[in-house]
Amino acid sequence: MSKRKRREWKTRWMTAEGDIVRIIDMEDRHLRNTIRMLTRWADAEIERELDAAFRCSTMFSGENATDLIEQGIDDLLDVRPQDYAYEVYKAYPRMVKEAEKRGLRL
Fold first, then answer.
1. What are the φ and ψ backbone dihedral angles of 61, each rounded to 5 degrees?
2. Which of 43, 54, 65, 101 is the most buried (most CB within 10 A)?
3. How many domains does the chain have?
């Protein structure tokens, strides 16, 4: 994917109906609900990663392996869904910035 295309997805959103809208053109309610949805998705992804890490912890032995897995679990436990969403979902930071600009409560 070209840099231009990647940049476009930072400023646009595909609706459930398949329409592509610019974030600045989203209605307040749609913007707020999308941010909340992405935050829930991030929370679910953190939970899946934690589950996988806990399952892995029983598969490995040795002090180094155990320490690495425990550190990974500790890191995941410290991650807020909003922070995870900022890192994973390209449009999320722009959506939050737009919501703040409009004075929307999240």
1. -130, 165
2. 43
3. 1
What is residue 61's three-state secondary structure? coil
Q: What is the pLDDT of residues 53-99, one digit of tens each?
A: 888 777 777 888 888 888 888 998 999 999 999 999 999 999 999 99
Containing domain of residue 45, as a range? 3-102
Token pair for residue 100?
A: 């703040």
Closest CA relative to residue 49, chosen from 39, 57, 38: 57
User: Quick check: pTM over 0.70?
Assistant: yes
Q: Give the Cα separation of 19 and 106 in Å (integer).
A: 24
